[in-house]
Amino acid sequence: MRTTWQRSTIALVIFIALLLVFCGLSLLRQSAPKNRPGEVTILAKDRLYGTNMKMIMWKFKTDDTKAVQKNQAIAEKLLPDIIRQAEQENVDSIVVQAVQRKSLLIMSYDSSYGYVWNKGVDGQWHHHADNEAARYSTQGNTYYQQQQYQQAVDAFSQSLKSSPRQTEVLAARGLSYTRLRQFNNAIQDLSSALQIVGSNNTQISARGQLCYLRGLTFFDMHKDRQCIADLQTYLSSKFTANQASANQCAVANNDIAWLMATSPDAAVRNANEAIRYAKQGIPYATEGLLPAMMMDTLAAAEARAGQYPLAVASEMKAIAQVTDEQLKSGMQQRLQLYQQQKPHTEHYSSL
Question: What is the C-alpha to C-alpha distance for residues 121 and 96, in angstroms, rounded to an integer?
Fold first, then answer.
């Protein structure tokens, strides 16, 4: 039988042990991230799929299993706020994950109901409910960024096998086909994505973006009328006001103006509209070669309208802004035409 001293000693040891456990748990609680609904944790790298993408992890903690099952609706409601932070942090991937509390211990959670949003090559945020589809899509985006376009096509194709109605993956594969100059495959993918989006008014931005991508592919195929129609649809759609959209607006206006000024199809040419689109795009052209391209296009439009002194002045401004000798050579050839009071007309070779 233990003595009173022994019982006191044992009680004291148990009390100290409990105190240490309590202090340890308190420290754990203080050091662990306190993710409540709507809060996010910025992670440097996306280790989920082994890529170097940054991502946001958003966690929803609850004791209620039914509440966990409602996570997707909650996440989608809060997603605009999360995406705004993702844009500020230059994040490429968002993982929304519900966690169900199992016990009072802070480290004892079961994870379930994960949802992934990726920023695709089209610059838009897209939801992936299927983990296998998301994994292949992420791989495809990585290959695309590394300019490994055939590998990107293969990865996007695997993603579409798991989930065939992913408009953003169809668009990304279409872009990859364009880079490989497999234009018919690219048009097929982009057209399929547009068919899925349909005429839903809530998808105006997505439809415009897809038309932009298909329009650029038609431009490369020298299908001038189809290109103009798609790019005009893009310009009439709603899009986010940011630098990427500004660049796209510049390119869309530039390509429409260029075709209306220089197309070998006389039915496509429209000098006054070409000037209007060129001038409309100039304020958006602020980066890289875009300012020079816009001035080069404006010169072509002015020449088509017979305004040769203006065309010469605009072309000289364009030449002054470029250092690439190949680009400069083409501009100088067009300048000579305008000085001779002749417009520039494209001559397409077969693809």
Answer: 21
Report d(CA 19, CA 287) in Å as an integer.
62
Q: What is the DSSP letter of 349?
A: P
Cα-Cα-Cα-Cα dihedral sign, residues 135, 141, 142, 143: positive
Residue 86: pLDDT band (50, 70, 90) is low
pLDDT value at residue 267: 97
Q: Is the Cβ–Cβ distance between 256 and 277 less than 8 Å? A: yes
Question: Which residues fall within 8 angstroms of residue 135, CB to CB, at 6 or more apart?
Answer: 49, 159
**Residue showing tokens 């220089």:** 262
Q: What is the C-alpha separation between 183 and 214, in angstroms, rounded?
A: 10
Strand order, beta sheet including 55-62: 41-43, 55-62, 93-101, 109-119, 125-128
Determine the 3-state secondary structure of 17 from DSSP. helix
In the prediction, which pLDDT does 134 show?
A: 75
Q: Mean per-residue pLDDT for 1-28?
A: 40
Say what the pLDDT of residue 149 is.
Answer: 95
- pTM more than 0.85: no
**Element holding 34 (H helix, E strand):** none
Taking only Cα atoms into account, the Rg of the chain, rounded to an integer number of angstroms, comes to: 29
In one letter, which amino acid is 55?
Answer: M
As given in the structure block, the two tokens for residue 319 are: 């030449």
Q: C-alpha distances in angstroms, 330 versus 49, 142, 257, 318, 336?
A: 45, 34, 18, 11, 10
The residue assigned the tokens 């990859």 is 176
Parallel, antiparallel, or unpaired for β 93-101 and 109-119?
A: antiparallel
Banded model confidence at residue 125, pLDDT cuts 50, 70, 90: low
Share of the chain above pLDDT 70, in %: 58
Question: Between residues 37 and 126, which one has the greater pLDDT?
Answer: 126
Cα angle 54-58-61, degrees, rounded to a multiple of 5: 155
The one-character DSSP state at 348 is P
